[in-house]
Write a structure and sequence with these properties.
single chain, alpha/beta, Phosphoribosyl-aminoimidazole Synthetase, Chain A, domain 2, globular
């Protein structure tokens, strides 16, 4: 499923990459932040999601695993008060499709995004590394 994405991103010397499966987007990004002692900011307005998933989440159909992941991550994740609860629920939801999160140098991000979209790959820039953090941290804004 990720063959073309992986081949494309490798042309841009990624710093890190993870397959988003089973630990939610926030859990996997936190793993990247902790592994590199960085602070990563996720921009909810840029994160693609399935419209029906948001509808179901608004009805309260969130798996218990999402709350477990959120609880596990809470000491290392900051959520801006302006972020919709339903979007947070989706960001911590372990029911993901196995997409990739790739960390690239800032100067390569737009070039990689263009290469992926030119290949017909659904890709977005969803966040940024904003500095060092002794234990790794994720901010959701």
């Amino acid at each position: 499923m990720n063959k073309r994405s992986a081949e494309t991103m490798l042309r841009f010397n990624p710093n890190a990459c993870t397959d988003i499966t089973g630990f939610g987007l926030a859990g996997h990004v936190l793993e990247m932040a902790k592994g590199s002692n960085k602070r990563i900011v996720l921009h909810t307005a840029s994160i693609p999601y399935i419209a029906q998933a948001k509808e179901y989440a608004q009805m309260g159909l969130i798996p218990a695993g999402a709350y477990s992941i959120k609880s596990f991550c809470e000491k290392s994740v900051t959520i801006e008060p302006s972020v919709e609860t339903v979007l947070c629920d989706l960001i911590f939801d372990p029911q993901t499709s196995g997409g990739l999160v790739v960390s690239l140098a800032e100067e390569d991000a737009d070039k990689c995004l263009k290469a992926m979209t030119d290949e017909g790959i659904n890709a977005s820039i969803i966040g940024e590394v904003t500095g060092n953090h002794p234990n790794g941290h994720v901010s959701i804004v």
